[in-house]
Amino acid sequence: MPRTALIVIDMLNTYAHEDAEALVPSVREALPGVVALLRNAHASDSPVVYVNDNFGEWRSHHGEILKAALDGRHRDLVEPVAPDENALFVVKARHSIFFETPLAYLLGQLKAERLVLCGQVTEQCVLYSALDAHIRHFEVVVARDAVAHIDADLAGAALRMMRTNMAATICRADEVAFDARRPE
Predict the structure, then answer these.
(1) Angle (deg, nearest 10), helices 152-166 and 127-135
(2) pLDDT tens for residues 123-149?
(3) Which CA distances in Å does 138 have to 38, 51, 71, 133, 165?
(4) Closest of 131, 48, 140, 135 to residue 94, by C-alpha
(5) Is the N-terminal amide bond of 78 cis, ω within 30° of 0?
(6) Contact between 12 and 50 (Cβ < 8 Å)
(7) CB-neighbour burial class of residue 56 (10 A; exposed 0-12, middle 13-18, buried 19+)
(8) Which tens digits make up the pLDDT trace of 43-55?
(9) Model confidence, pTM
């Protein structure tokens, strides 16, 4: 099996944005899947990379982003998925996890060939990230019960597009296999 990295997209969120009320119920539904993926990635010693918006705070770093999210309106959605001391972190400013970020370089250093995507928002950041991963020749897996949406119809279409146009594997979180522990 190719080296797998778990990518957690935009889960450190203050939920102080225009679409938050539409998003929050879906995040609640996706949270157990994200937690399960994190647990399984940690158990297999697979790399976990959080890629998160900086919300226009150009002087922020991951600690400040996490603190703002934990101090936000829905701490209960952030605490269960907060990064541990081994998590890697990339700050992004746009929808794709790759757009003008060092993620591709980091994944190369990790020798990752397969990316498991989870987080939010299915029809936006997850979709654009899956496309950018696909054009960079990564194998893409999206755990459909570990991604949250604003619009259910668009999210369904996005998942179909990822499967059809990007050859992504769309499955449940409990169906995702991570690497067995390997020596470096």
Answers:
(1) 10
(2) 999 999 999 999 999 999 999 999 999
(3) 20, 16, 35, 5, 14
(4) 131
(5) no
(6) yes
(7) exposed
(8) 999 999 999 987 6
(9) 0.93
